[in-house]
Amino acid sequence: IHFYKRYSSAIMKLNVDGLLVYFPYDYIYPEQFSYMLELKRSLDAKGHCLLEMPSGTGKTVSLLSLIVAYMHHKPSEVTKLIYCSRTIPEMEKVMEELRKLMEFYQKNTTENVNILGLMLSSRKNLCINPEVTAERDGKIVDMRCHNLTAPHVREKSLEDAQVPICSFYEQFDRGGREMAVPPGVYSLDDLKAYGTSKGWCPYYFARWA
Description:
6 strands; single chain; two-stranded antiparallel sheet
């Protein structure tokens, strides 16, 4: 049986083995604190760890809370978190948890935490070219994209304007590679909206960022 542990402070501030960790909920499982403690010790040791918790006990927010705090206080130790998941809904849940955590920092602390969170996925889920998005099969989308962005295709288009290329990729190639993505949390829809506003391919821009 798992019990909630409540802290009296309106803002959940945890001392995890000497690291100040902000937690965006009013309650925390003891297992969540133990999870963060073991993760912190693994990071300190620069080693590997295999952690397990039951479903529904808040693994995602525990990991994000600890990692964001670690990256903020020890920026030279941890510079990037790659969070892998199997499905789009699971990835979206991770991004929402990260967004909630960042909003918590902004509203309740004076910490200046500039985190860039990007949700990466396939061309099928990020393409905004209407000639390609009409396709539903991921392999066909990849093929259509390649046929519009391959180097030899782009070279031919310079000689023959009738050779089709992707305007979104061309716009990104001309200006997107030199632009830094503003700090924030970007879901697939956010990336597509940002790409559309700039006229840039979200798929290649996200990977370049």
